[in-house]
Amino acid sequence: MTRMVGRTERPEVWVGHVVLASHDLPRALAFYESMGLRRLRELNEGDGLIELEMRGGTHLVFVLDPAARTDGRAAPFDLMVDDLDAFHADLHGRGVETSDIERGAPFDHDSFTFRDPDGHVVTVNNTHVEGTV
Questions:
Q1: How does residue 132 score in pLDDT terms, banded at 50, 70 and 90?
Q2: pLDDT higher at 129 or 4
Q3: What does the pLDDT look like over 31-88, one tens digit per residue?
Q4: Fewest 10 Å CB contacts: which of 38, 90, 96, 116?
Q5: What stretches of 1-133 adopt beta strand conformation (E)?
Q6: CATH number listed for the domain at residues 17-126
Q7: Largest Cα span, the chain
């Protein structure tokens, strides 16, 4: 088994799948694709789920739930981006509900939140990842 030595190799484990409920799969798909996530397969209405790929191979899976909660609960994950200010400006400029950027927020990150079409509140952090991760 290869292990990370210094910061020259990737860690051996990462998050595989993160699952959220959506009451409107095509809308969730369009929203997250517009942020740069990659569709892994075509949306088939009968499947009841969509699967998107993020950097690092993590998959964001949406399952159809017509009664999905949209009460502003925090998503069970956060996102990281290379250019937080540009990402914030892009979302805000497209009319997505965003918070102000907080500098040095949790875990020494700058961060902000946005609300997705299903009402999930997602935190976005700047990255301090180094090397080939």
A1: very low
A2: 129
A3: 999 999 999 877 776 789 999 999 888 999 999 998 877 678 899 999 999 899 999 9
A4: 38
A5: 17-22, 38-39, 49-53, 59-64, 74-81, 102-105, 109-115, 121-126
A6: 3.10.180.10
A7: 47
- Which one, of 113, 117, 123, 91, lies nearest residue 25 by Cα? 117
Backbone angles phi, psi at 117, to 5 degrees: -60, -25
What 3-state DSSP class applies to 28? helix
- Token pair for residue 9? 């190799």
- pTM: predicted TM-score of the whole model, two decimal places: 0.83
Residue with tokens 């190799």: 9
CA dihedral 48, 54, 57, 63 (to 10 degrees): -10
pLDDT value at position 96?
A: 97
d(CA 3, CA 110): 29
